[in-house]
Amino acid sequence: MSKLERACIIDDDPIHQYGMKILMKKLNFTEEILVFHDGQEAIDALLDLLNTGGQLPSVIFLDLNMPIKDGWGFLDDFVKIPHHNREQVTIYMVSSSINPSDRQRAETYEMVSNYIVKPVDEDQLREILREESV
Amino acid sequence: MIANQVSLHTFPVSVALLSTDLSFLDFSGIWLENFGLSQNIKGKSFFRSMPKLPEELQLDIQYCLDGVGERCDSAKVTHEDGEVVWYEWKLNTVNTGQDKVDGVILILEDITEKKLEEQLLKKSLEVARIGGWEVDLLDNTIYWSKITREIHEVPEDFVPNLETGISFYKEGYSRDTITRLVKEGIENGASWDTELQIVTANGKDVWVRAIGEPEMVDGKCVRLVGTFQDIDRSKKAEIAYKLVSERHARATRTAGIGIWEYDIVNNDLYWDENMYRLYGVKKSDFEGVYSAWESCVLPEDQEESAKAVSDAIAGKGDFDTNFRVRWPNGEIRWIKAEASVMRDENGKALKMIGVNQDITELKTAQLQLIQSEESLQGAFENSSVGMALVSQDGSFIKANQSLCKSLGYTSGELSRLTFQEITHPDDIDIDLSLLSEVINGDRSTYQIEKRYFNKKGQVVHVFLTVTAVKKINGELSHFISQIVDITSRVEASNKLKGLLELTTSQNNSLLNFAHIVSHNLRSHTANLSMITGFLLDNEISTEEHQESLKMLKRAANGLDETIAHLNEVVQVKLEAGKKLRKISLAKTVNKVLKDVSALITENRQQVLVNTPKEVYIKGISAYVESIVLNLITNAIKYRDPQKEGKININITVEGNHVVLEVEDNGLGIDLDRYGKKLFGMYKTFHKHKDARGIGLFITKNQIESMGGAITVESEVNKGTIFKVKFLKAEQV
């Protein structure tokens, strides 16, 4: 398993952000972690990154419920990014919601790989890392 | 001498014997009688005794005395007074010796009467247009009198024979009949008397009466004699009369009109055929007297009908009455009777002539009408449905008890009102427009659900059916309104609707709670789970353990806070339906502004309040305060730092509601994006340190629990207006 170049966490909950960072560090998940508090902040930053010739993160952990722009809003904006730039990006929806309708809705987005119910644990992250390495 | 030989006295003719010196020698009793003379004329001069005799008689007597054996003649004398007297006489000379005239026998008769009769007959034959005819079968000659020719319209010199005579009869029945009759007459000597039609020489159809009498000699007919009478006018009149009377009889029979005539003097009651039919009596069973009629009349009606008869006879008015008769089979029929009274010159009543008519059907229909009117009236009065007769201008002509009860007015009070005056203003237009369609004839009826105000001013819900009533000429007369009071139904339905709304809102709350539990509570428990995982993980550094403990505290607090919020919402829900009190909205606003004055000053907000003095709402004071506080602090919190902050607070009255508007010129909200979520729990739309997404959720719940509503208008970077509708409380 090789370390990822860049991963991204979009979540307004500081506890979740903290937990994810701890887990990634422990698993040696990525070189760099980008953290955003809402969808708008995230999309703005990612577009900036592209404009400055940067590389998009290979994995995005996206929360559903956020102020300003929630997870769905982010996805709606993200699909507008030219395909060749985002085709290497894997998005995981991460939510505390166990509401089945949220999972079903997530499945309608082609670029969403999986729907993970919080809390995210070590094994799940390890599995993701393995898949990404392959 | 002669006189002594035979006495003329007993001779059965009017005869006298005159001497040569023309004095009476003898005379018969009849002579005296005929000429009004007495015995003492004997020996007296004939001409002196009877001066007014025709001159011709004097001459004839003279001739006889001169030797002419006999004379007979007749002549007339016109008296000075113009009277004409006809005499007929016969004279014979009386000779006792040879060539010596001893006297004359004179038979003299006054034939004036006979002569008159003769003349009259002739005249009457002419007038009656009776002609004569005669056929001599031996030489086959035929004679037609002048009138006969006239009837046939042939010239005077027309010479008929038997065949031409018959050929004048109209072809068909008339000619066939006369041919047969003449044949029978000739063969059997049978006479005839018949009425037939001829066609005159001028082609005119004429009715004639033909009488024929054969003369038989040794069983053989030698002659036919007869008369021929023009009866065209009378026959045609007769035919016409027959037609008329048949028509009349048919008409009266069809109309069921019976004609009767009552001879008061002789108590003789005549009925025509129809009368028997009307009374169901056989002609043979009816005695034709007054009491026979009376016995047909129903006993209950006898007194009155007898009085009508006696009144009419006494001249106290026309006979025009109705009574019932009982038929022999027990059936009872109504008869209408009318009559006139005939009187003599002294005014004494002689006869009554009148008509009877069976009016049973009419009477039955009348009775049924009365009954149906009575039952309609009863139905109108006692119906559980409110009913009213309404005039074209909308005023109540008549209202039944049920309607009075629904509206709380007496029927007298209603009659001074129009339906427009007591109709709910929101319902008047539709009612009037439908009514005008009825007035214009576009429809004959309509039904609507509408509201009236009762006498106390309370709303009465009704289901109204309006039907037009027309006059006989088709013009609109008035309306019948049927009004079903559905107030209790509507109230029950509203209550049900309320319950349904409550249930729906509770269901929504439940869903919301499910969501809150699935997301908001879970997010905390997920955090707790993750953090405790780190704490138990030995591979994690001490610093990270310390940090994890802080995070654990934070997660626990978050959970606590969420539970507190949920409790608050549950409380609001539980408080719903709590008794609302009268609250001054203006005072509440001022109190809140005072409480947050520091915040306002700090953020340099300009606040304008525009409110009527006395405005009261129905509410729970803690909620109202919380709502106002939340809206004002929101306005401050989401101000636009680039602008000078302005907050306008307006309070207005809209019908039964009081509207609170809080308007800011702040950041605004993208409603297309967040409109649905705006009042949801834990929804925030601004990057703000204090945005917690709980305020509007609680606010909305509080407002709704007081029967109000909240709406929002907003534009990003322009500002936001929150409008809160409260129930208005009465001033008193």
UniProtKB/TrEMBL annotation, chain A:
The modification 4-aspartylphosphate is found at residue 63. Signal peptide: none annotated. Residues 6-133 form the Response regulatory domain. Gene3D superfamilies: 3.40.50.2300. It comes from the Bacteria. The keyword Hydrolase does not apply. Transmembrane segments: none annotated. Keywords: Phosphoprotein. GO terms for biological process: phosphorelay signal transduction system. This is Response regulator. It comes from Flagellimonas ochracea.
UniProtKB/TrEMBL annotation, chain B:
Residues 71-123, 192-243, 319-371, 446-498 form the PAC domain. GO terms for molecular function: nucleotide binding; protein histidine kinase activity. It holds the Pfam family HATPase_c. It comes from the Bacteria. GO terms for cellular component: plasma membrane. The keyword Iron-sulfur does not apply. It catalyses: ATP + protein L-histidine = ADP + protein N-phospho-L-histidine. It is found in: Cell inner membrane. Gene3D superfamilies: 2.10.70.100, Histidine kinase-like ATPase, C-terminal domain, PAS domain. Its EC number is 2.7.13.3. Keywords: Cell inner membrane, Cell membrane, Kinase, Membrane, Nucleotide-binding, Phosphoprotein, Repeat, Transferase, Transmembrane, Transmembrane helix. Residues 244-316, 372-442 form the PAS domain. It is a multi-pass membrane protein. Residues 516-730 form the Histidine kinase domain. This is histidine kinase.
